[in-house]
Amino acid sequence: MKKKLVVLSGAGMSAESGIATFRDSGGLWDRYPVEQVATPEGFAADPELVLGFYNMRRRELLSASPNEGHKILAAMEKDFDVHIITQNIDNLHEQAGSSRVLHLHGELMKARSTGDEALVYELDPAKCDILPGDLCEKGFQLRPHIVWFGEPVPMMPEAERITRQADIFVIIGTSMNVYPAAGLLDDVRKSVPVYLIDPKDVNTRRYDIHHLRMGASEGVKELQRLLTY
Ligand code: APR
């Protein structure tokens, strides 16, 4: 039976695809006040600003492609039962061919009703902006299908279940600042090897982590070498 390789990815996973991270210098939260663009209160105060922010993110995604890191993770399904838990709202893991991707913080290419959270719609890349006045079938304004700060993270129980079953756990390109996602590390069984792929130090609180201090593409290649040969 294949070993279960569970990956927790963050913004650094997509950095080499040209998508800005949040907390590096020049990152998104340097340029846009997080309270204004990524909270329910910000959306209530200025829906146009928030919709515009995510429309911009969506256009950026449409001109990006998966990098070598995404591609190698997809190829590793040949040898491992790979499960990706991502904090990213882009779909670059899926574009690279990964078949089990769980999005903790929502998905950029989906819209959701503000009146009925069960109504979620795939956006057409050809006309993917969500505009004020765009309504769901029940007549409520559409919003990005994103988990904003202060909102519940509905995929957490599933992410915890997958993490508890990991035989190998890999953290890629996340500063581990945002909870509950960062708390998943506590669900990894003690005997399970943990790898970290990040050019910088990350607060992981575990002393036995194999830190591959490199970018995502190079790091995933090295991980594949270490685990496969
Ligand atoms: N390869 C790998 N890691 C990289 C690269 C790279 N090329 N470039 C930067 N990094 C690392 C940084 O060193 C940092 O540790 O990626 C991490 C990015 O951290 P953050 O910007 O904090 O992003 P993330 O941890 O994904 O943020 C978590 O916060 O803003 C919210 O909802 C948003 O999902 C996001 C969550």
Average pLDDT works out at 96
Helix/sheet category: alpha/beta
- Corresponding CATH superfamily of the largest domain: TPP-binding domain
CATH class category of the largest domain: Alpha Beta
Q: How many structural domains can be distinguished in the coordinates?
A: 2
Proportion of beta-strand residues:
15-25%
- Globally, the shape reads globular
Helix amount, in percent? Answer: 25-40%
* Unreliably modeled segments: none
Which value, in Å, is the CA radius of gyration? Answer: 18 Å
Write the CATH fold name of the largest domain.
Rossmann fold
What does the largest sheet look like? 6 strands, parallel
Helix-strand sequence = EHHHHHHEHEEEEHEEEH
Spatial ordering of strands, largest sheet:
3-2-1-7-8-9
Oligomer class: single chain
Distinct ligand kinds: adenosine-5-diphosphoribose
The CATH architecture classification of the largest domain is 3-Layer(aba) Sandwich
Distance between the termini: 17 Å
